[in-house]
């Protein structure tokens, strides 16, 4: 290797090292004040690498227990709109929307519709140049399992995970942030569409309130990429929702404890929050407005 | 030659970073008693020996959870801490665990956010200056009444 190539190598290595260092610094800035964090033994914990995880749309639907309710075609964004979205922002946003729609569709065993939504997601993934996220020939795998509801649910879940992994792996977490925000909004939009009348004791509303935690992690995750113009735009409704969730009043607070039962631990206690009718109406309005804005073309 | 060199280093960097994304899916040997669904909050993280990280995850009410760890041999023992309000669970796993998943299981009676801290010790056996992978598998199922 001659001297000039050595120089190139040194520059490259330095650049790569800087990339990782910057990544760490970015995470460092993102650590927020939190009473739990303040209790930690910081002397033994110095790196400050913090990751934020939040449930997938499928997991949100499963928790809120949409099952047992009738499927409604009117709640999803029609798959044939997929080519109406022509800029990166709306393509990424609507990929997230379709991911949630697909989770909803497969949950209700709408096999014949699921292929359209897989195709819409695949089309948008190509449009925003992330179609390599799918390791297997996705559409073939779906066609082979079109009559098998359980397989379709797994394929939909795998497809979501493949997209997440690909975006993380390729340092495109700004896109993941945008996509996750729209998927979250769509999940709540579909859920709220089933709640016509406010009832503080409704199990569905209580489970909706529990999404306060998922939203908190999603918000903190997205704030790491707020300098990206698309994230900055997408995060607006999430910020408004966070304000509502942050102001919810605790309904009951029981002391948290860990018990040992057999080989398993039982984690009990904690804070349950309640949403007022006014807060619920406001929350629904923010979600409906955001969703309408997201899907328009 | 110049372009070959650039490509080589670019690929090297990509490989170092990307090798971890699916580590938990491909390298952690699940226990034979595993009866959970994979939770999408599972993750793999590239770490230097001696480094630590934390992640925040959501745990829903009425669910049983499994949190397991596996790692590459170059990483040392794992100190694990689970924190949520007053709940603190501490565990230490020996550096010889590697692919063998060490785990905790719990039933969760209220939806909560938790901070999970993982500190990886320095190994005395293998020295490396590279990042190596640590995988965290989260499994979930409905709590049986």
Shape of chain A: globular
| Extended strand count of chain B | 9
Order of helices and strands of chain B: HHEEEEEEEEE
Order of helices and strands of chain A: HHEHHHHHHHHHEEH
Q: What percent of the residues of chain B sit in helical stretches (DSSP H or I)? A: 10-25%
- What is the distance, rounded to the nearest whole angstrom, between the alpha carbons of the first and last residues of chain B? 66 Å
Textual characterization of the structure:
With 297 residues, chain A is mostly helical. Chain A folds into two domains: 3-41; 57-248 and 282-295, no CATH class. Helices cover 62% and strands 9% of the residues of chain A. Chain A is built from twelve helices and three strands. A two-stranded antiparallel sheet of chain A has the order 2-3. In chain A, a hairpin with a 2-residue loop joins β2 and β3 (264-274). The longest helix of chain A is centred in the N-terminal third of the chain and has 28 residues, at 3-30. Chain B is of the alpha+beta class. Chain B has one domain: Sandwich (Jelly Rolls), CATH 2.60.120.680. Helices cover 15% and strands 48% of the residues of chain B. In chain B, strands 1, 2, 4, 7 and 9 form a five-stranded antiparallel β-sheet that branches. In chain B, strands 3-8-5-6 form a four-stranded antiparallel β-sheet, with no helix packed on it. In chain B, a hairpin with a 2-residue loop joins β5 and β6 (87-93). The longest helix of chain B is centred in the N-terminal third of the chain and has 17 residues, at 2-18. The radius of gyration of chain B is 17 Å and the shape is globular. Chain B starts with a helix and ends with a strand. Mean pLDDT of chain B is 83; it is low at 4-17. At the A-B interface, α1, β1, α3, α7 and α10 of A face α1, β3, β5, β7 and β8 of B.
């Amino acid at each position: 290797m001659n001297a000039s190539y050595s120089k190139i190598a040194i520059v490259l290595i330095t650049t790569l090292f800087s990339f990782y260092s910057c990544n760490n610094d970015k995470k460092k800035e993102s650590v927020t004040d939190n009473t739990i964090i303040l209790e930690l033994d910081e002397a033994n914990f110095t790196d400050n690498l913090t990751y934020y995880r939040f449930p997938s749309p499928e997991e949100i639907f499963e928790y809120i227990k949409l099952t047992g309710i009738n499927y409604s075609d009117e709640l999803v964004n029609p798959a044939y709109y997929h080519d109406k979205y022509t800029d990166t922002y709306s393509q990424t946003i609507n990929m997230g929307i379709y991911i949630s729609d697909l989770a909803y569709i497969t949950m209700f065993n709408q096999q014949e519709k699921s292929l359209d939504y897989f195709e819409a997601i695949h089309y948008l993934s190509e449009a925003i140049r992330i179609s390599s996220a799918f390791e297997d020939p996705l559409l073939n795998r779906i066609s082979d399992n079109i009559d098998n509801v359980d397989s379709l649910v797994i394929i939909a879940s795998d497809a979501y995970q493949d997209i997440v992994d690909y975006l993380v792996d390729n340092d495109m977490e700004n896109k993941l942030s945008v996509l996750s925000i729209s998927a979250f909004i769509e999940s709540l939009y579909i859920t709220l569409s089933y709640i016509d009348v406010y009832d503080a004791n409704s199990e569905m509303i209580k489970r909706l309130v529990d999404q306060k935690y998922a939203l908190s992690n999603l918000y903190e995750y997205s704030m790491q990429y707020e300098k990206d113009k698309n994230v900055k735009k997408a995060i607006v409704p999430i910020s408004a929702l966070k304000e509502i969730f942050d102001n919810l009043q605790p309904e009951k607070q029981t002391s948290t404890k860990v018990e040992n039962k057999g080989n398993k631990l039982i984690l009990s206690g904690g804070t349950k929050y309640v949403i007022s009718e006014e807060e619920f109406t406001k929350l629904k309005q923010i979600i409906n407005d955001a969703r309408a804005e997201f899907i328009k073309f | 030659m110049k372009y070959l060199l650039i490509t080589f280093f670019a690929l090297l960097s990509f490989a170092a970073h990307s090798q971890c994304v699916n580590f938990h899916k491909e390298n952690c040997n699940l226990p034979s008693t595993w009866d959970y669904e994979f939770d999408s909050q599972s993750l793999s993280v590239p770490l230097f020996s001696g480094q630590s990280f934390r992640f925040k995850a959501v745990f829903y009410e009425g669910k049983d959870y499994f949190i397991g760890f596996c790692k590459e041999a170059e990483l040392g023992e794992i100190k694990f801490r689970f924190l949520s309000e007053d709940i603190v669970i501490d565990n230490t796993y020996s550096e010889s665990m590697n692919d063998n998943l060490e785990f905790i299981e719990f039933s969760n009676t209220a939806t909560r956010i938790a901070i999970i801290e993982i500190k990886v010790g320095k190994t005395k056996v293998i020295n490396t200056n590279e990042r190596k992978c640590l995988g965290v598998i989260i499994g979930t199922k409905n709590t049986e009444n």
